[in-house]
Design a protein that fits this description.
The structure holds 2 protein chains of 2 kinds. Chain A is of the alpha/beta class. Helices cover about 40% and strands about 10% of the residues of chain A. By secondary structure, chain B is an alpha/beta fold. Chain B folds into 2 domains: about 170 residues, Thiamin diphosphate (ThDP)-binding fold, Pyr/PP domains (Rossmann fold); about 120 residues, Rossmann fold (3-Layer(aba) Sandwich), CATH 3.40.50.920. In chain B, helix 2 links the parallel strand 2 and strand 3. In chain B, helix 1 runs parallel beside helix 7 and helix 8 crosses helix 12. The chains are: A alpha/beta, B alpha/beta. Chains A and B meet through helix 4 and helix 5 of A and helix 3 and helix 5 of B.
């Protein structure tokens, strides 16, 4: 839980500041998964500033809440939030993807605050099942939150893990799907249809809710309501926009990974700074 | 064929594994076994009956098996992930690479019925690639015990490791190769016999075949060294070089493809140490493996005691 309770307005401002930083460090590194980081940042914001019972001081504690980012490619969003929460110094973000940096282009345990190495898709949920199983076996109160991409759900291993999670009644496990409707090739429904996703998850024994993945109070409500049903794992389909906050990146799969050129970067900054002023956080 | 080794008949290494695991788990509730519908194949039904809270069943889902095992290990559990070697190391290779090895969670991966233990079932069920695949992945010890003693000691030693390990063995009863009380240390080969003509450097269930060959050769006045190289990574290069320097020729023996296994690992060490000697890698060649029992397949590919003895004679006589 955040040391100081932040208001919805303060979190909205934080989200825009995070977006600015994501773009800044991707631009600096000349590499990064821009669209997906912008789509999941509000989820990470609410998780780390309101929901997760974890801090740099408690990260090694067996009872801490776990966050596992299965869609590892959106690591820039995670790094920005972890730095903001004090897991490591913000200046280290300048080393993103550089030679010998800890901050690789996908999460690793070398970075304080990161629970598990991810990057290949379809791994985080099954790992989280193992973590949640110990929680149940040992009667520990921690929760395990996993962020999945929607394109990632093409990987069959997720569905093996879905089965195991409901079989073992892991109501301490929460999967959040960043449902931005796009993957590298194009719309998820054209690449390999996922819908009806909520029905599929429910059929696998999960308790499912749908939320606006950019709405701070809505995310707070849904993430505070877990487990939705005792004895069942919880799934949140977070409706999001890939590239959220930058007009020319939104809904465009070419920004799955893409670095803005100088002019694009300037426009993106201007747009986000405008949003920041509107949110009451501008200079 | 190759069973009369004088050391007495033992159990299947698989059976010893299951008994050892049960005795460890009875002492420590943090010892867990994870199975993928493989408790029968793994002789773990007794374990499940005695300690139902210490077995995690994931169904026929090897990817899930390995990733869940990694998650359990991350919470401090002492986890043995058990599945037939053929499925464990192929279907779940990416989970082994990323969730276990790259993430460095100390999962004990146990490949049962390895090599051609499932010989009659065809190539889907053979694991002749596993050592090569895992040798090419950073941060995975590889142990291939030869007999009951090595199996028990390997399974016990694995519990204390802080990093990933892969242990593979078969299901046919194995003769005892070592005296009770023989020291076992991961990464340190065991000398089964010492002689100055031919060195057999072998791993796993074909060590017994090498011992059989050595006995045949002794009757013809040829002295053999037999080294059980139970740990393939880290390889005991000191023992390997000592075996090379004590003999005129060397044969490596493994129940695995000749590509990327023990033999190539040994050859690399010898060549880079400037050692040139008559040398032969005995394993499964690059072809679709024939169907048959484990022993029939050993015989077919020259891994049986009599055929290893014949190869040794050819090598020593310069016809190898």
């Amino acid at each position: 839980m955040g040391s100081v309770a932040l208001s919805d307005r303060q979190l909205r401002i934080k989200s825009i500041q995070y977006r600015l930083k994501i773009l800044k460090y991707i631009k600096m590194a000349n590499a990064g998964h821009t669209g997906g980081s912008l789509s999941c940042i509000d989820i990470l914001n609410v998780l780390y500033n309101r929901i997760l019972r974890v801090s740099p001081q408690t990260f090694g504690h067996p009872d801490r809440d776990r966050y596992i980012q299965s869609k590892g490619h959106s690591v820039e969003a995670l790094y920005v939030v972890l730095a903001d929460r004090g897991f490591f110094g913000e200046s280290e973000l300048e080393t993103l993807c550089r030679y010998m940096s800890r901050l690789a282009g996908h999460p690793t345990r070398k970075v304080p605050g990161i629970e598990h190495n991810t990057g290949a898709l379809g791994h985080g949920l099954a790992f989280a099942v193992g973590v949640a199983l110990t929680g149940k076996k040992d009667g520990r109160a921690y929760r395990v939150f996993v962020l999945l991409g929607d394109g990632e759900l093409d990987e069959g291993s997720n569905w093996e893990a879905m089965m195991a999670a409901s079989h073992y009644g892991l109501d301490n496990l929460i999967a959040i799907v960043d449902r931005n409707m796009l993957q590298i090739t194009g719309p998820t429904e054209q690449v390999c249809r996922l819908e009806p996703l909520a029905d599929k998850l429910a059929a696998f024994g999960w308790s499912v809710r749908i939320a606006d993945g950019h709405d701070i109070p809505a995310l707070t409500d849904v993430l505070s309501a877990v487990p939705f049903e005792p004895g069942r794992p919880s799934a949140i389909i977070a409706r999001t926009t890939k590239g959220k906050g930058v007009s020319f990146m939104e809904y465009d799969p070419s920004w799955h990974h893409g670095v803005p050129d100088n002019q694009q970067y300037e426009i993106a900054q201007q747009q986000l700074e405008q949003l920041l002023r509107e949110a009451g956080g501008g200079q | 064929m190759g069973n009369d080794l004088g050391g007495g008949a033992g159990k299947a290494n698989l059976e010893v594994f299951a008994q050892t695991l049960l005795s460890m788990a009875l002492q420590n509730k943090d010892v867990l076994v994870v199975t993928s519908d493989s408790r029968g194949s793994g002789h773990l039904k007794g374990f499940a009956a005695r300690l139902p809270d210490q077995i995690v069943e994931v169904g026929v889902a090897e990817q899930d098996l390995v990733a869940i095992a990694a998650g359990l290990a991350s919470t401090g559990k002492i986890v043995y992930a058990v599945s037939p070697a053929c499925f464990l190391t192929a279907r779940a290779l990416e989970q082994i690479k990323n969730d276990v090895c790259y993430s460095d969670w100390p999962v004990r991966l146990v490949g049962i019925s390895a090599g051609v233990s499932y010989g009659p079932l065809g190539s889907t069920h053979h694991s002749l690639h596993d050592i090569a695949a895992l040798r090419a992945i950073n941060n995975c010890m590889i142990i291939v015990p030869a007999d009951n003693l090595e199996t028990e000691m390997a399974v016990r030693a694995a519990a204390g490791l802080q990093h990933p390990v892969y242990i593979r063995f078969g299901k046919r009863p194995m003769p005892h190769l070592h005296r009770p009380g023989t020291q076992f240390e991961i990464g340190k080969a065991i000398w089964v016999m010492r002689g100055s003509d031919i060195a057999f450097v072998a791993t796993g269930e074909v060590v017994a075949q090498a011992v059989d060959a050595a006995r045949t050769l002794k009757a013809q006045g040829i002295e053999s060294t037999v080294v059980s190289m139970h740990t393939i990574r880290p390889l005991d290069t000191q023992a390997l070089l000592a075996a090379a320097s004590s003999c005129k020729a060397m044969i490596t023996v493994e129940e695995h493809s000749i590509a990327g296994g023990l033999g190539e690992a040994c050859a690399a060490v010898l060549m880079q140490s400037g050692i040139h000697m008559p040398f032969r890698i005995m394993g499964l060649p690059d072809e679709e493996t024939v169907v048959g029992s484990q022993l029939e397949i050993f015989e077919h590919y020259g891994l049986s005691g009599p055929r290893l003895a014949q190869t040794a004679l050819e090598l020593l006589n310069g016809r190898g």
